[in-house]
Amino acid sequence: MKMNRKIAVQRLEKCLALSESAGVSETVSRIARPWRGDRESEEARTWRRATRTVIAETFGQDSAHVQDFDGIFTRDHLSSAYLFPGGPLGKAKQLLASIIEEIRVYWDDQCALDPHVPRPVTDQPYVAPTRIRELACVQSSQFDFSKLIVLCEELNTCAERGCLYSTIFLTRCILDHVPPIFSCETFSEVANNYDGGKSFKELMLRLDNSSRKIADLHLHRQVRCKEPSINRVRITFSNELDALLQEVIHVITKQPQQGAGG
Predict the structure, then answer these.
(1) Alpha-carbon gap, residue 222 to 166, rounded angstroms
(2) What CA–CA distance (Å, rounded) separates 152 from 46?
(3) 244 or 30, which is more confident
(4) I need a labelling partner for 56 at 20 to 30 A (CA). Which of 138, 146, 226, 247 fits?
(5) Which residues are CB-contacts of 179 (< 8 A; sequence separation ≥ 6)?
(6) Region of 230 on the Ramachandran plot (φ > 0 left; ψ -120 to 50 alpha; else beta)
């Protein structure tokens, strides 16, 4: 289940309320031990870590909200101005208040990310629905696009559900599927030899050199005592794949069809 709006607001409001206690603890600690310099009190540090965790569990570890919170608590900020209205604690409270208001105004009831629910690979569909519709409309007497369309649709489903391995495997599958359209036997031939212009070649070389090798790595590597986690940034090639599919459509539509005009 995804965290709903009510739960997200409750958790963040608790963090906001506890900031007062953390501030009191920090005040007492700084009065009692003014030589501490930029070291936080234990309670303030615990509050900061717990609040960051709540924000990350609500929006995602890589979200702008987490980055905004981290940007407040730099070493430069942990100074004598810590407790001032414009200091780190005051800025953190303002950020929490704005986040709570954002959730209340803009969220539906099911909108936050549960850390145990896989996040989508990309914010938008991995393959643009318009591109899939264009593929479905292309007529060719040489090639049947039905499998390519299904691969694109399944790729979108896997990416939306955060299935990282399946996403990169299906990307590799599409690369292996389309070379005959470019009169090539392998995708490496497409990337290196097809004359689609400089920009197209750069994108295809990235698909060939990066996505294909990443897929091969995870496809063929056998089980080990400890497996590193797969990185969603490394397996995201939606822009390059779109350029490939666009060129597929271009190649087919400019070819004369058998029986045309006859």
Answers:
(1) 17
(2) 46
(3) 244
(4) 226
(5) 185, 186, 187, 189, 190
(6) beta
Q: Please report, as a single letter, which amino acid is at residue 97.
A: A
Token reading at 73: 């608590």
Using alpha carbons only, what angle is made at residue 206 by residues 200 and 211, rounded to the nearest 5 degrees?
A: 130
The angle subtended at Cα 46 by Cα 118 and Cα 232, nearest 5°, is: 20
Nearest residue to 19 (alpha-carbon basis) of 99, 112, 116, 115: 99
Long-range contacts, 22-25 (Cβ 8 Å, 24+): 22/46, 22/47, 22/48, 22/89, 23/83, 23/89
Q: Quickly count: other Cβ atoms within 10 Å of residue 11's Cβ.
A: 20
Q: Go through the chain and tell me how many residues it has.
A: 262
DSSP string, 211-259: IHHHHHHHHHPPP-SSPPPPPTTTT--HHHHHHHHHHHHHHHHHSPPTT
The predicted-structure confidence for 94-113, as pLDDT tens digits, reads as follows 899 999 998 888 786 555 55
pLDDT in tens, 199-221: 999 999 999 999 988 998 888 88
Predicted TM-score of the model (pTM): 0.57
Output 63 or 201, whichever has higher pLDDT.
201
CA angle, corner 117, sides to 207 and 237, nearest 5? 10
Percent of the chain with pLDDT over 70: 78
DSSP one-letter code for 196: S
Task: Give dist(CA 78, CA 262) in Å, integer.
Answer: 80
Which helix (H) or strand (E) covers residue 167, if one does?
Answer: helix 164-177
Rounded CA-CA distance 95/72 in Å is: 9
- Asked whether residue 247 carries a pLDDT value surpassing 70, the answer given is yes
* CB-CB contact of 140 with 257 (8 Å): yes
